[in-house]
Amino acid sequence: MTRERELMRVPFGPIHPALKEPVKLTLLVDGEEVVDVSIELGYVHRGIEALAETRNIVQVLHLVERVCGICSHAHPLCFIQAIESIGGIEPPERALYIRSLVAELERMQSHLMWLGVMSYQAGLLTLFMYALRVREGILDVLEEFTGNRVIKEVNTIGGVRRDLDDRIIARMRSAVKELRRALKLLIEAVHDKTLESRLEGVGVLEHGEAVELCAVGPVARASGVDFDVRRDDPYAAYSQLRGKFSVIVRRGGDALSRTEVRILEVLESTELVEAILDELPQGEVRLGKPLLRLSREIPAGEDVSRVEAPRGELLYYVRTDGREFLNRLRIRTPTLANFPALMAMLRGSELADVPIILSSIDPCIACAERVTLVDAREGARRTVRLSELRRGGG
Amino acid sequence: MKIGVMLRDALRRLLGRPLTIGYPLKPERPATPRGYRGMIAYDWETCIGCMLCLKVCPSGAVSVADRRKVTFDVGRCIFCGQCAEICPVGAVRLTSEFEMVAVDRSAYRVGPRW
Question: Which of B17, B57, B80, B85 should we substitute to test contact with A (largest number of A Cβ atoms within 10 Å)?
Fold first, then answer.
């Protein structure tokens, strides 16, 4: 006797043990297999873009710092680049190096944090402890240099707010050396047979899908998309550092490949930090002009800026009104760009793999809560041209 | 992962000094880094009343007080340190004080005392 199998709708979230932040997935399952999925956002919407339109440029700089706690350097860096390009401001060389330096330290701590969360989802609490212990060393030097563990507040118009001295450079060098030693243990733990077989073949994103759905960052690179903003559209000091790092690409497209890409990127970042500290040019770290005069001199204009945040390509669209205020600010975070890819990964997967797949894209829900142009239900994303933004931006 | 590597690490952690500190049960306070952004200190006698801090504060924590002085509401402050950076006479400073719990909101008002 056969019974007709029914499709079931399984709600996943907004509050779920596997989720660190509220997002609602509705999974359509056939037995154990996920047939379809829809994502519902909006539980942690904070209205940052609208708030930015009521503040002046200096105030917005501190506001965008707080879009995300983990990538709190990438956001203001991206914003300040757009502002500096509108105003034709060129920060000193040393400031650009310091921006790159903090960005790399941030990438390390973000990837290590992710590795911890990922292994926690896979049921390997030991690796979670290892990863977070290693991450602490990086946070310590960040705190020593910037004054805070997460909200770093390093960027300012026309440079950075703090300068490196010999003591901090020495501490950074020893922290990076320590990290490289500790990474050996982590890499060995990741290539443990048990963990490997848990991650292998889970949440596969084919190369074609990754290109078509515009996946970004480590998710795209794990599916064979050889793209990194740092190399392909260099900002800060990355054009001078071009030969000092390689872009990690894997072809597997599964959770294991994404893990490999991230952990090897930490290794690349250690190389980069050492290269930056070796080549650090002398001189000023910010322009001599007062900050408010700089912000007053920024004319009306618009610009799009891109940064390779730890999670992938981060995009800012900024339009100034020439009177110290912003007409429009649009933030596209990497997590938002990766949602269509996430849906492609979830389709056809097993229900028990959903937490691992979800955490394998390193989601930052609070960052992704913007006014959305993504048609998540169909997995399609419209590419928005500047002229369209101009028309729809006001 | 080899069991020997794991055991060695576990033993080292078991016998070694803990990574955490005993705060707040132990009397010693954790060291804050140089340039830590903590509680606001306001020197109202030096303040010239230019109101630049009012202009740059992202969270609206600065308000105008009598006789062209300002009051800081630390409860609203996000500790970006922009007021201290913009102040032309150095009347605002972010100290290394981080124990800021209070039961009374008036403890969060840092302003002129006549």
Answer: B80
